[in-house]
């Protein structure tokens, strides 16, 4: 993660009030930087996706229920996520995936024993490809390099 730094998130949840204040200050500074950047690129995301993303608080606290990797071409895959929050269930589809990184060092911080979507960063790289970074449950991160994203309500 470039902006939603997990160490700052952990600091904000510390038992030490001074550590909390420092973490919060650093967190807010980086978030302001990211929100400024996101404003410059968000119009390039599909309107339907952006509408659901915004309406659902950027999927914060959604449970990542399922991740499916579908190999369809040499050097390119489709990744499907099924995410839920209460009765709301979505299928996110990432097409033209050329890189996916899961950093899940432990499951001990998973809320209620499930991987929860925390904070999201989007970026466009020099090759005009999208990067999504998801910070989950303090110490887990997911990064996907992709061409297109879509969203559908799942059943």
What does this structure look like?
It is a single chain. With 155 residues, the chain is α+β, with helices and mostly antiparallel strands. It is built from three helices and eight strands, in the order H-H-H-E-E-E-E-E-E-E-E. The protein has helices at 6-12, 17-41, 47-55; strands spanning 63-73, 76-85, 88-97, 99-103, 117-124, 130-136, 140-146, 148-153. Strands 1-2-3-8 form a four-stranded antiparallel β-sheet. A four-stranded antiparallel β-sheet has the order 4-7-6-5. Helix 1 (6-12) packs across helix 2. It is globular and about 50 Å long.
How much of the sequence lies in strands comes to 35-45%
| Main beta sheet | 4 strands, antiparallel
- In DSSP terms (H or I, runs of 4 or more residues), the helix count works out at 3
Looking at the structure, what is the overall shape?
globular
Poorly predicted runs of 5 or more residues: none
How are the strands of the largest sheet arranged?
A: 1-2-3-8
Structure classification:
alpha+beta
Helix content range of the residues, please? 25-40%
Rg is 16 Å
